[in-house]
Amino acid sequence: MPGHTVNVGPVTETTHQDDATRLFRLSIGVFFIGGFLSSTISLFVPRMTLVYGLDYVRALLIQLAFHMSYLLFAIPIALTIIAIGYMRSAATGLAVMAASCMLFLWAHGLHSYALVLFSLLALSAGITFLQIAANTVVAVVGSAEGAAYRLNLLQAFNSVGTVIAPLVAAQYVLGNPATTGLPAIIEIAPPFLFAILLLATLAILFFLNRSLLDRSAQAHMGGARLDWSLLLRNRRLVAGAVGIFVYAGAEVAIGALLVNYLVMPNIFGAAPVSAARMVSLYWGGAMVGRLAGAYAMKRIRPAMLLMLAAIGAALLTLIAATAQGMAGGIALLAVGLCNSIMYPTIYVLALPEDPRLATPGGTLLCMAVVGGAVIPLLTGALADRIGLAPSLVLPALCYLFIAAFARACRGSAV
To answer: Using an 8 Å Cβ cutoff, are 70 and 369 in contact?
Structure first.
């Protein structure tokens, strides 16, 4: 890989295993903080609607800014990863995320919504480094048959972050500034200061281990190039990219609007901070599901498990769109359990088998996460017109596409 110094000597199976193990341990913190920040940022959508009185579309500009980077910057970031290597790229992404969190706090202190959105775009650029670098390298460094298992297990640590964030951050993000008497920058600071500290520590660790994959990554991914015509002829990769587009959109839309749904008088009628803490049940379902999914994939083909999860998510979302009271609230919270295995499983099923196409293919799949910007905005536009509950039909349709993709992949050996 360009930018790496190749170590002299044979690349043994033991070397590959040692590299994969060390990479997995380093990646735990990356997946955790990614989940923590994503879940915390989602709480700013109800903050904008319930505290500042914005409509759904303007509030969901937060998710638009937070996910647009995947489309805007994925190609240059992928070229950077090919040039400097996975470990250096991960360190760069972590450093960008830490700086963006500082900018976010400053923007909030200035009460500048435009600067807040810009800081979220920058934060998303840092996450894009990690999406392409970490997901791809964990998938291809180590045994191919264990790729879906490894990614699902790491996604469980991502879910730990998403569960903890609402419990910790709700009082800071959804507290009313008029009642707390604190400046906005101080009021929301604690969860972001924690994130900055952890991100800086991880960036240093990845930089210190920057030569970790000099041997195994060279063997697996040498000669990577962005050949779009070749990628777009891969029907499974393209279908998987659409699957990730709609998955990211459905999960983000539900996660961002869940507080607003639970505070509705005909659902739970909960106070905003209490509803935000209930969101941890949504992400907690994803955490339990990922751990269970990693275990189940040793016995059930990933494509079959994905199809069952997608059908379950579609049915639960339709119940939430039509039911009232406890049934609707419980159904929407339970969608998190079905979401659990979707992203890593779609990713592994769609990723090209040729290692030289792993990074370019991962780039296309990462770009598809822009669905987290598009689908929530469309759902918000529907909510402003027809009501929040009926607008959930759109995420339900997204899950039905994922079920169709999984059905088409049932013969996969992954």
So the answer is: yes
What does 280-294 look like in DSSP terms, one character per residue?
Answer: HHHHHHHHHHHHHHH
Number of alpha carbons in the 13 Å side-chain half-sphere of residue 355: 18
Give the Cα separation of 140 and 364 in Å (integer). Answer: 16
Q: At what angle do helices 235-262 and 325-339 cross, to 10 degrees?
A: 150
Instruction: Return the CA Rg of the chain.
Output: 20
Report d(CA 256, CA 258) in Å as an integer.
6
Of 199, 196, 198, 200, nearest in space to 104 by CA: 196
Query: Which tokens hold the place of 20?
Result: 């994969």
CA distance 1 to 24: 20
Mean pLDDT is lowest, of 125-134, 170-179, 342-351, 388-397, for 170-179
Tell me, what DSSP letter sits at residue 7? Answer: P
213-272 confidence digits (pLDDT tens): 654 454 444 445 566 777 788 889 999 999 999 999 999 999 999 999 999 999 999 999
Written as six digits, the tokens of 409 are 């992949």
Structural domains of the chain, with CATH: 13-408 (1.20.1250.20)
Q: For residues 173 and 186, give the distance between their C-alpha atoms in angstroms, rounded to a whole number.
A: 11
Residue-by-residue DSSP string for 370-399: GHHHHHHHHHHHHHHHH-HHHHTHHHHHHH
- Please tell me the distance from the alpha carbon of residue 352 to that of residue 341, in angstroms, as a whole number: 19
**What predicted TM-score, i.e. pTM, was given to this entire model?**
0.81
Q: Would you give the DSSP letter of residue 353?
A: S
Gap between the Cα atoms of 310 and 305, Å rounded: 9
Angle of helix 13-42 versus helix 61-72 axis, rounded to 10: 150
Q: Residue 242: what are its φ and ψ, rounded to 5°?
A: -65, -40
Residue with tokens 């939430």: 320
